[in-house]
Amino acid sequence: MTDTDDPDVTIDSKDASCPGPLMALIGKVKTLDAGTVVELQTTARNSTTDVPEWLEEAGHELLEIEERDEYWSIYLEVN
């Protein structure tokens, strides 16, 4: 598994309501090369289920979901 301590790209979608975080992620992923590690920061609980579902459909790899004090960090690798 890829190290998630130092992602290549961080998307700050804290305080954005659904589907904002997912839409920001989709838009950014389209511009990235395979192998890029992305951290999506979100306060939207639905993102913890919506994002993994989209990643599976789109063929990207979910690395980790980390719950922090005030938000979640969802780490993925672009394929």
UniProtKB/TrEMBL annotation:
Residues 10-77 form the UPF0033 domain. InterPro entries: TusA-like, TusA-like_sf. It comes from the Archaea. CDD domains: SirA_YedF_YeeD. PANTHER family: SULFUR CARRIER PROTEIN YEDF-RELATED. Belongs to the sulfur carrier protein TusA family. This is SirA-like domain-containing protein. The lineage of its organism: Archaea, Methanobacteriati, Methanobacteriota, Stenosarchaea group, Halobacteria.
